[in-house]
Design brief:
By secondary structure, the chain is mainly alpha-helical. Helices cover 69% and strands 0% of the residues. It contains 6 helices and no strands.
Length: 129
């Protein structure tokens, strides 16, 4: 969490913070693939005390994300009541690649980060021809 907070404090705009969050999340997965899968798939098997520590970290992480999304929404002049829904949608986009993304495969982590950011911000250009 401290690494993320330090990275976020180095950038100013909500969009930069959003990109930083996505990048941090994907790079954390790439650097800790086994732990990430374990935390997502086997958490119900953890001792109660360990699970509580993880849940507290998740709450802090979600608070950071909601703050970033709220900033992006306000910057765009939107008035959305569902910052929580938007935040969890982004979190799903960033988390689900653990099921299919191979950092050593055809696409790089940077390409994944860029794609998620563009989709989320509505900047993905799709050739319609």
């Amino acid at each position: 969490m401290k690494g993320l907070e330090k990275k976020l404090s180095a950038v100013k705009s909500p969009r930069e913070k959003l990109y930083t969050f996505i990048s941090h999340h994907i790079h954390n997965y790439v650097e800790h693939q086994n732990e990430s899968r374990l935390a997502l798939l086997e958490r119900s098997n953890l001792p109660r005390e360990s699970l509580e520590v993880i849940k507290e970290g998740e709450r802090q992480y979600e608070t950071i994300l909601r703050s970033i999304v709220d900033g992006v929404v306000k910057e765009k002049g939107e008035n959305l009541d569902s910052v929580r829904l938007i935040s969890f949608s982004l979190l799903g986009m960033c988390t689900f690649p653990y099921m299919w993304f191979d950092p050593e495969g055809q696409s790089t982590p940077h390409q994944l980060i860029e794609t998620i950011f563009k989709i989320f911000c509505g900047n993905l250009k799709i050739d319609q021809s």
